[in-house]
Design a protein that fits this description.
Length: about 170
């Protein structure tokens, strides 16, 4: 299922980050078959790169709390790009538009196969990948948007009230 994404990853310039950090391509975490929720993040961070799973660092812990609080246990988490983006100093950076575009067809295919009931974009990179313009906590059909967990962490907020509202706003 992840063969074409893996092949595309190995051919991309970003793959040098996997090699230089002795890290991993990061595919998914959760239920691959018709989950209730698909969460799309941005890109793997240091912890995710190390262990090969998305959202297992600080942002992931926050997301897990959001889900637990809403009884969400049938989900899958992926990112717009499967490789950690690093700048020339080896520091983490946002994925570029071009990087998101490069991986789009592979991520599109995956989402078709996974066939989730609802999709939640975590942050603006995921929203850009979906080509949508939404305000925080808005839905367009079965696609919802909430600021990235890292946004809440940076402001010392838990974001739980916002996430609960997002879930309630679905109609
Ligand atoms: N932030 C993301 O967007 N994705 C991850 O997998 C981890 C942190």
């Amino acid at each position: 299922m992840f063969n074409s994404l893996e092949n595309a990853s190995r051919k991309h310039e970003l793959y040098k980050n996997v090699i230089s950090t002795n890290g991993n391509i990061v595919f998914y975490r959760g239920n691959l078959k018709n989950p209730e929720y698909l969460f799309i993040g941005e890109a793997p961070g240091q912890t995710e790169n190390k262990f090969g799973k998305p959202f297992i660092g600080r942002s992931g812990k926050l997301l897990d709390g959001w889900m637990a609080n809403n009884g969400i246990n049938n989900f899958i988490v992926i990112n717009t790009v499967p490789i950690i983006p690093l700048n020339s100093e080896g520091k983490i950076r946002k994925p570029t538009r071009a990087e998101i575009e490069y991986f789009r067809p592979y991520v599109d295919d995956l989402i078709k196969i996974i066939n989730p009931s609802k999709i939640i974009c975590l942050g603006r990179s995921a929203l850009a990948y979906k080509g949508l313009k939404l305000e925080n906590l808005e839905w367009d059909g079965n696609i919802g948007f909430i600021y990235h967990p890292a946004y809440y962490l940076r402001r010392g907020r838990k974001g739980i009230g916002d996430f609960n509202k997002l879930i309630k706003n679905f109609s």
